[in-house]
Amino acid sequence: MRALDQARPPAERIVDDPYAPWFLGKLARAQLAAGPLAGAFLGALTGYIQARHRFMDDALRRALTDRSVDQVVVLGAGYDMRAWRFSDLLAGRPVFEVDYPSTQRRKLRLLRGRPAPPVDVRRVEIDFQRQTLAGVLEPVGFRPGARTFFTWEGVSMYLTRAAVKSTLGALHALGGPGSVLTVDFWQLLDSPDLIATAHRVSAGFLHLLGEPITFGIHPEDGEAFLGRLGWEVNDLADAAELARRYAADGRPIYPANFVVRAVRR
Fold first, then answer.
1. Per DSSP, what are the bridge partners of residue 183?
2. What are the residues whose beta carbons fall under 8 Å from the beta carbon of 113, sequence distance 6 or more?
3. In which element (H, E) is residue 14 found?
4. C-alpha distances in angstroms, 43 versus 39, 46, 144, 208, 209?
5. Would you call 264 helix, strand, or coil by DSSP?
6. For residues 102 and 80, what is the distance between their CA atoms, to the nearest angstrom?
7. Could you tell me whether strands 180-186 and 257-264 are parallel, antiparallel, or unpaired per DSSP bridges?
8. Could you give the C-alpha distances from 25 to 70, 83, 103, 123, in angstroms and in order?
9. Residue 180 φ/ψ, nearest 5 degrees
10. Does residue 157 sit in the same domain as residue 77?
């Protein structure tokens, strides 16, 4: 979905990720070749994924530009390429990419032989069932208590409430005061109309695909929820706000998610 925007002129892109096509399989490459037709087929979810990434990009750019953070952690990194995309702003600050071993190793394999920018990327393998974030980060040079930019994208809705709270608590313990968190959440659309009903049904469909949505929170409750865990929300964007900021061309934004920027107290 990030790669789809590369087919648009630069001025029309929500997110500019030239590396995204590198990681696509055959089916996704075929979809990419279809250009705008693929985006139309994938619908509002494409717009949301792009806008979510852009929201987090903007937060990271701000933190790096005003030098308010000393290190970056990408939690559940997958095929995130912010370390390369923001290499000119990092100025020696390390980026810790944390994910499962199989994902990390596939990413390294696909990047092998490609010219890399001068950036300090430390890829951290973790088995969340057996290891803690502190246990895997500190041995590779993470500095507990330093001002840290955390990004946690597209994960919280697939965890239990206890797991979400535990992770947010762990990030609070690792980062010093002033650390920045960007995270997205799923919400239950409670309108009785057909569109909201379709989105509620789609959540059940994901369960059949093996990715059940297990945690949701309403945007009205996001500030209080994060506040109880030591995070002060200073920017929250639901679908309407994401559309206002980033979708000048009128492309639809999936309505059942929202994105937050918060600062550690």
1. 152, 260
2. none
3. none
4. 6, 6, 41, 20, 19
5. strand
6. 15
7. antiparallel
8. 35, 22, 14, 22
9. -115, 140
10. yes
Which backbone phi and psi does 35 adopt, to 5 degrees? 60, -130
- 3-state secondary structure (DSSP) of residue 27: helix
What total of structural domains would you count in the chain? Answer: 2
Per-residue pLDDT 10s for the chain (265 aa) are 999 999 899 999 999 999 999 999 998 888 888 766 666 667 899 999 999 999 999 999 999 999 999 999 999 999 999 999 999 999 999 999 999 999 999 999 999 999 999 999 999 999 887 899 999 999 999 999 999 999 999 999 999 999 999 999 999 999 999 999 999 999 988 888 877 777 777 776 666 666 789 999 999 999 999 999 999 999 999 999 999 999 999 999 999 999 999 999 9
Structural tokens at position 111: 């990047």
pTM of the predicted structure, to 2 decimals = 0.94
Q: What residues make up the domain containing 13?
A: 1-42
Instruction: Report the half-sphere exposure of 191 (CA within 13 A, side-chain side).
Output: 9
- 118 in the same domain as 105: yes
CATH number at residue 148: 3.40.50.150
Strand intervals (E) in 112-189: 121-125, 148-152, 180-186
Same-domain check for residues 29 and 124: no
Q: Is residue 93 classed as helix, strand or coil in its secondary structure?
A: coil
Tokens of 251: 């492309």
Tokens representing residue 242 in the block: 């994401």
Clarify whether residues 194 and 63 are in a common domain.
yes
Residues 32 and 147 in one domain: no
